[in-house]
Each structure stands twice: as structure tokens, then as C-alpha cells.
Specification:
It contains 11 helices and 5 strands, in the order H-H-H-H-H-H-H-E-H-E-H-E-H-E-E-H. By secondary structure, it is an alpha/beta fold. It has 2 domains: 168 residues, no CATH class; 133 residues, 3-Layer(aba) Sandwich (Glutaredoxin), CATH 3.40.30. A 5-stranded mixed β-sheet has the order 3-2-1-4-5. Helix 9 links the parallel strand 2 and strand 3. Helix 1 runs antiparallel to helix 4, helix 1 packs parallel to helix 7 and helix 2 packs across helix 7. The longest helix has 27 residues.
Length: 315
């Protein structure tokens, strides 16, 4: 194969990967808190959640360098290593925590594929980057390419910075309000009836720990321990579709684990109530008598004839 043809193929490979990286980076930068939330809910590591802007800006920078052709060979190698590292972390999340959505393209749900297709796509991009590293011809520095880099990075930085406060807010509110009157807590905004009992369950469709707690929470209403379970979930069209499809398909097999009432609200609104997901509050006589974060005890464990929930929670 002629050298000129190899250069064209190598440059094309680099540009194809650049398009994917730029689309992914700018899509995530449009809502940095959404990507940070996925990292936090899956791995439960605060430093990883706060590194979301760094990951996004690195992706944008590599995409811009590949697109402009600056240092294309060495950048192709660095991008391949970055992609292998990200894929390894995602694979760990899939097998260790049941992660299903990497949030690679933010709210562009039609581009967020299943774990298998995501890893296959990343593998194809690594092959393209290897070809780019071997065959691509680097382009010299030019003021136009420099301006593209500067404008692109400024746009990505501004977009990440605009939603960064929402991401850091995940770690600011830890109150569980146990023993307090509902009217003295943010839960007063739910306008609950004082003569009824409730479990208010905050969760995310992308949080493996939340999905584990869902069947347990369902028992609280089905067994009559509380009058009503109210589920409040963060907005996520992909995760919500998978969630509702699963319980619709298994409703006849597992009737007690079918979904309770669920309200879907923006992440900003969830943070008004709590930063811990999953988070559950048991409310009786307008008082929060119990709260759990991370794990929710199954209602079936409490369900006995003439059982007093108040007495058990006080033990």
C-alpha cells in the first residue's frame, strides 16, 4: 500500500474517533452533574464523582487534537490508552456493581448503548487509533488550528463549570431528620396527609444499590406497614424505560415487587431533599420515625400480626 494512501486512511481513522470523542465530551458537558451522578451512584467514591469535569475536558481536548491533526500520532497513542482505562473502569462497574449506563453521551439516550455494545465500540476505536498512530501524518501548528483548540476548550470548560455546583452539591446534605416533624424538614414540600403513614423513597434508575432496594421497599406498602410508598426518582429516560419494562414483564411472576407510585423529577429537585441515594423515610403522624440510607430493610421482616412498627424502630 502506498504511503499516501496509508496517510489518508490513518487521518480518516483519527477523524472518526475525534467525532465520537467530541460528541461524547460536549454532550456530557451540557450536564456535568448528570455524569457525576452516574459515577457517584455506581461507585460511591466522592473523588471519582468530582473528577467528572476532568474526564469530560480530557475527552474534549483529545477529540480536538485528533480533529485538528496536531501531534496526531502521539495523541492517537494517548487517546487509545485513555480509552482502554475508561473501558476497564466501565467493565469493573458492570461486573462489580451492575452498571448498565456509562453516561457516555449524556442525555443523548439513543447513543447510550448496552454494556456489550459500548465495549465493542470502544474496542473498534482502539483499533482505529492504532492505525492512526502508525499511518496518520501529523499537521503543523497553525493559528486556525490553535484557535479551534482554544475556542473548543473554553466552550467545554464553561459548560462543565456551569453545572459543576450541582455536582458538588451531592456531598453537602446529609441530614436524616429522624424524630423531626415533617413540617420542619424539606419533606414538607410533598404535602403529605398527617393522618396517614408513608415511606418516601428517593432513588436513581442508574444506581445499582437503588435497584436492589426497590423490591424491599415494595413490601412496605403491599404488607400494610405503611399506607403508601412514594418513590421519587431522578430523571433518566434510558434507566426509567429499562426499569418500567422489567417490572411490567415480571409483574405476574413477582406481584409484590411491582413498582409503587413513582414521581420523576430533575436531579436539582432531588438534591433539595437529600444527597444520599437510595434514601428512605418512614413517616407516621406527621413525624419522621425512621430513615435509612444505602440499604432499606425489607418490609416483610417487620410484617407480623398485631405488629407495632414504632416499638421495633425504637429498639
Amino acid at each position: 500500500m502506498k504511503t499516501k494512501t496509508k496517510n489518508k486512511i490513518g487521518n480518516l481513522c483519527a477523524i472518526l474517533v475525534a467525532i465520537v470523542f467530541l460528541l461524547s465530551g460536549f454532550a456530557k458537558s451540557a450536564d456535568c452533574a448528570y455524569f457525576s451522578n452516574i459515577l457517584w451512584r455506581t461507585f460511591q467514591w466522592q473523588w471519582l464523582a468530582l473528577s467528572a469535569p476532568v474526564i469530560i475536558l480530557t475527552e474534549i481536548a483529545l477529540g480536538l487534537l485528533l480533529m485538528t491533526g496536531l501531534y496526531r500520532r502521539i495523541v492517537s497513542v494517548l487517546t487509545a490508552l485513555f480509552l482502554v482505562g475508561i473501558s476497564a473502569g466501565f467493565l469493573y462497574g458492570v461486573y462489580a456493581f451492575g452498571m448498565t449506563n456509562c453516561g457516555c453521551f449524556g442525555h443523548l439516550s439513543f447513543l447510550n448503548l448496552s454494556p456489550t455494545f459500548t465495549l465493542v465500540r470502544n474496542g473498534i476505536m482502539v483499533v482505529l487509533l492504532i492505525l492512526a498512530a502508525v499511518w496518520a501524518q501529523p499537521k503543523p501548528m497553525h493559528w486556525v488550528r490553535a484557535m479551534i483548540m482554544i475556542i473548543g476548550m473554553l466552550a467545554g470548560t464553561f459548560a462543565c463549570g456551569y453545572t459543576l455546583p450541582k455536582a458538588t452539591a451531592l456531598f453537602h446534605k446529609h441530614a436524616k431528620y429522624q424524630g423531626e416533624l415533617v413540617e420542619n424538614t424539606p419533606l414538607a414540600a410533598l404535602q403529605l396527609q398527617p393522618d396517614s403513614s408513608y415511606m418516601v423513597f428517593f432513588f436513581s434508575f442508574d444506581c445499582p444499590f437503588c435497584m436492589t432496594a426497590v423490591p424491599q421497599v415494595g413490601w412496605w406498602e403491599k404488607s400494610g406497614l405503611v399506607d403508601r410508598v412514594i418513590g421519587i426518582a431522578t430523571q433518566d429516560s434510558v434507566g426509567e424505560h429499562k426499569f418500567r419494562s422489567f417490572y411490567q414483564d415480571t409483574a405476574h411472576t413477582y406481584p409484590l415487587t411491582s413498582p409503587f407510585t413513582i414521581q420523576v423529577i430533575p436531579m436539582d429537585s432531588v438534591l433539595y431533599f437529600t444527597n444520599d441515594l437510595p434514601m428512605a423515610y418512614v413517616i407516621r403522624h406527621d413525624t419522621i420515625i425512621a430513615s435509612w440510607s444505602g440499604e432499606v430493610p425489607p418490609g416483610i421482616f417487620f410484617y407480623q400480626p398485631n405488629y407495632s412498627l414504632n416499638n421495633s424502630l425504637q429498639q
